[in-house]
Amino acid sequence: MSVEVERTIPTGNREDEIQIYDLHKSFGDLEVLTGIDLVVHRGEVVCVIGPSGSGKSTLLRCVNLLEQPTKGRIFILNEEITDPDADVDRLRTLMGMVFQSFNLFPHLTALENCTVALTQVKKLNAAQARAVGMENLHKVGLGDRGDSYPLKLSGGQQQRVAIARALSMDPELMLFDEPTSALDPELVGEVLAVMRDLADQGMTMIVVTHEMAFAREVADRVIFMDGGVIVEQGPPAEVIGNPKEERTRTFLRRVLDPTHVDVTDDHLAR
Fold it and tell me: Are 132 and 115 in contact (CB under 8 A)?
């Protein structure tokens, strides 16, 4: 008879901003995450790469409970956000989230997008919120566009407003879910430049991305996911430059050389 051994959760390290243990997520009969263990340290930039459908975005959405895990435990700054008694709304304020689509309020100006949560969630007065919002718009190079509505901004500018909005909540860490995937190629660089600046300032970041040059240059650690598991992880020079696993090598061949076709690895196309 087999006996299931309870996992010991080594919490308490102040340098660990995110701790994920045995994370599973299913949608009906489809298991998208199948036992993820991951610790992200303070000031670390972790880039998550992998084919579509590998569970990257689901992992990120589970971290702030936009998706409810099927099984597993997640700690944010040593507080368990998956605890049924957790103050999820408060813990979410510690995490800035930037999505593929900009998710700006179209009826609000850039500045108003940055201040609405400050007045409604943090209860700042209008003047205080405006000062914080303008400071963060300046950080992303849009100090002169505070009165502009989203439809008057380019995609790159809208995404930078989304980053400024997240920064306005003074988060401890940032989550980026393929923040450049909806942008025209000529606009990608301006968003990545802001993210590089955040990394240089010591912001803890998890970045789901297909931008291999960014991952190679900025990440402290690269994680390759496929089939709902972490296949390989390590410094960019190892995972991108000299991957150990065949699944990683096949994926990188396809990303770095789009003309490459490997008919033996159809599972990567899902």
Answer: yes
Indicate the pairing of strand 71-76 with strand 16-27.
antiparallel
**Residues ≥6 apart with Cβ < 8 Å to 256:** 212
- pTM metric for this prediction: 0.89
Report yes or no: 63 and 95 within 8 Å, Cβ to Cβ: yes
Q: pLDDT value at position 171?
A: 95
DSSP for residue 220: S
CB 76 within 8 A of CB 91: yes
Q: How far apart are CA 104 and CA 110, in angstroms?
A: 8
SS3 of 160, please? helix
Q: Report the candidate in 174, 78, 168, 172 with the shortest Cα–Cα distance to residue 122.
A: 168
Question: pLDDT > 90: what percent of the chain?
Answer: 86
Residue 121 has pLDDT above 50, yes or no: yes
Q: Which of 178, 250, 166, 255 is nearest to 209 (CA)?
A: 178
